[in-house]
Amino acid sequence: MPHHHDFSSRHIGVGAAEIKKMLTALHYASLDELSRAALPAALLGTPLAETAPLSEAQLHEALRTIADRNVCAKTYIGLGYNPVVTPAVITRNVLEDPRWYTAYTPYQAELSQGRLEALLIFQQLVMDLTALEIANASLLDESSAAAEAMNMAFTHHRQRRRKFFADSQLFPQTLAVLQTRAAPRGIELIIGEHTQVSLDATFCGGILQYPCADGTIPNLSNFNKALHAVEALAITSADLFALTLLPPPAACGTDIAIGSTQRFGLPLFFGGPHAAYLATRKTLLRSVPGRLIGVTKDKRGGPALRMALQTREQHIRREKATSNICTAQVLPAVVAALYAVYQGAARLRTEATRINELTLLLRRALLELARGQKLGPLTISNASCFDTLTIAMPDASRQAVLQRAQQQRINLRTDVEHKIGITLNALTTVADVQELVALFAPQSELNWQDLQQQAARESAAQQWRAQDFMTHAVFNNYQTETEFVRFVNRLVSKDISLVQSMIPLGSCTMKLNSAAELQPVSWPQFSALHPYAPAQQTQGYRQLIAELQQMLAEISGLPAVSLQPNAGSQGELAGLLAIRNYHAAQGQGQREVCLIPASAHGTNPASAAMAGLRTVAVACDRDGSIDAADLRAKTEQYHDQLAALMITYPSTHGVFDDNIVAVCDIVHTHGGQVYLDGANMNALVGLARPGDFGADVLHLNLHKTFCIPHGGGGPGVGPVAAAEHLAAYLPGDPLATGDKASHALASAPHGSAGIFMISWAYLQLMGSAGLRRATQIAILNANYLALRLTPHYDILFRGRNGLVAHECIVDCRPFKTIGLDVSDIARRLMDYGFHSPTMSWPVAQTLMIEPTESESLAEIERFCAAMIAIRGEINAIAAGELPRDDNPLVHAPHTLADCMVDSWTRPYSKQVAFYPLTYLRTHKFWPAVNKVDHAYGDRNFHGGLDQQEVAP
Amino acid sequence: MEFPRHLFFTKDHEWLSDDSDEFSVGISAYAVEQLGDIVYLELPAVGDNFAARESFGTVESVKTVSDLYMPRNGEILAVNEEVMQDPEIVQDDPYGKGWLIKVKATAADTGNLLDALSYQKYLVQEEG
Fold it and tell me: Going by CATH, does the domain composed of A11-58+518-765 fall within 3.40.640.10?
């Protein structure tokens, strides 16, 4: 019996009585008996090492102790991470509000208008500051965004121009990731000096940091002109906050702009999560990676928002997608957008000006002291600056400065020999500048007032941007806290999330994101740390990371873990690159074929293409498992060239393949490696370990099985776990120096470290027994749900003993004959207060349902009641009792606007439309818009705010 | 669903205006029905050359992308700019205003062409 302090009884939605009821209905005597019947015997191996669960109080104490080993210091390292004040109103009403963070990716547009609008504001913000015509709804981070832009340039020239230029003053981590991503695509990365590079028609594009890493404001126009002269694409990695002062990239000829939006209200989080942006010209619209929010109209002709042009993306284009990205950085993007709304253009400009004045003040002070010989020889490397100075000095004095800095807990940029970098930020004051100067000349006397005046005059005399930005009404109307809170509430009230009802999306594992797990994310000792802070200041994080890695290694059965990838797709890329590099190191570089079943998630072939592997389809059985005969044939056919097989287990069809061990053996016999997509780990944790049954490498989705909230489409964390022989090829520190390639895929060494404690907390709160139980109940809930729906719908696939894993697929194809699309059922479920299950994946015209272990029996029954009632409506249509073009499904969802018509002429009552079941009287959610017109939106793409609402 | 008698068809659901050396190409009413709302067409440039069965472009609906396959070896003589501006034309008039490309054949082989009746029979087989 769980102790009443036992967290697992809070996380798991069903108690002993309900479990017994469900087991009895399924004819099983115990959870263990059900597990043994569902999973192949060969898999039920080593149990997890026994760990006792922590109570919430114990968890809090344990994390406090870890946090106390982190040191909050004044950090001027810069390199894309700059402290900013997160307004309390945003922390409380967005970051810490489960209505925002438990929402799913906005595929069901009618239930997602709030966050779609926030993302549209994000796109407009980026378009305004870069002055480019299109912006997407976030990428994973600045470095991967640079790699995506490089890929756009490569594809733009149809892969015929192999060279890509990167300026040496790009952030070092961006250079590292470009190196990792260029080689597998066959791109030759040329790193050099932008004013001296000799370009020709073998270059597809070039990228420049703006401002440069050393602080210089480069001549962007000249560089872009040189690229255009050879018809190469001009790419700029631009500090979005600096663009409030600097001339916008588009005005300087930039074709694609990328960067981080961390400075728009996000804490440093020891590296992430932060939203990156990508903006470009209209002509490149169809090559844009990631999600694009677009404006359309709904069935009543009113404005509505949706995810547009999805045919670019992996779930449709697969290996030909513009990118493998799936989960992005929606929640951080929402924060950045709302920060801009709250601040307005004037405040941002004032803040940027203040920072520039302080930077010029620091510069003047240091140069004056150097002239007056009050400190040793000192020069400032960058002639121009926004917020950064690079100071050159002899090593002895440099050492003295750094020592003083360390004693006073002041962090400067130290990775460049003979130089010190200082980037000022939103927290910096004059007193801070004086403190910095004192590091160089401990006893100096300066006329600070005079210097400040000079700095202010110098700043005002600069050639700043002439173009207005953020002129739309939304950036002007909500700058008092009262107005802002009401605006934020109006947005989020339009969205469904886990606070209203179950979100039974197959393979998304929308389980509980507990408040206790999330609380420590906001602690300054976790959120304020710079990813490149000295190791002795981040011992707490190192401990957290090591322990989380160890726990995930234990769960997966694979010992080498990297937490760097910040999405499952990124983890897939890391794992596939590790395989490719491993083969190359064995002298087997010709191994380039990656076998992928047709039932695989779209990110699988998309990631394989990015890793430079050739995708070959391997047939599936009807239940989504690998067809062993075809596998044997293909592995023989590609014997010498076989790099890997990618599998999902249980299969994407929700079935535990009996043959999995044999499948892995066949691949190994032919010299290939087995990659396992860990998206369905919720059916395995504590019961079976992929490392034990033959996987060489896998990725996990911490934002699925391990409780990081879905955030509306990010942040995610996609750690990769591998067998020992692949360990050396996993992503490492992007700032690591030396000959050894870092294989880095993200800007920060540990990716989105700022949210690791969520999964750490979940694992500690559950303990080994709790984790195993959670898995068993996830399987129980899915099977009970399948049982309840069986009399009404065909359950497409079943495995051993007629059981499903943690999800089941319901067949909606028969309803096509009466003119019903599965999307009609998805929209009708909105009237019943539910977000639809996964629509048309992995099989077209089906619904894939995953309840998870967190749902109660009452909620499961409520969902079943809705599905059964809808089946009744379908039957009525089939029987001709309701017209095929005038029934509750085709008109769904029903909105308040529908309700307000004076005369109701439909062949069904208002009761049926709005309250078809009794529970809706207390559990009603009103969709904000009617059925969205997707075709209109794609034919008439518009990805910004209504220009009629621009302030005069 | 219509399949005009004077046209030829392929198993990839394209039609050709005739089997002479200069012909137009489009997609059949069956393809239109399968695609649903057409939102975008990617078509080649005039002067491009393609082999038979090579993809010369794509047609997109909201949820799918389909390759368009050359029925015969040929050089592109003309591309229908109107349907690129307004993809709905293909849905409304797939055999007339919805033509996609005009081609000059660069090889003689017409072995894979079906007449309207044979194409309809093929469709029945596919569905069953």
Answer: yes
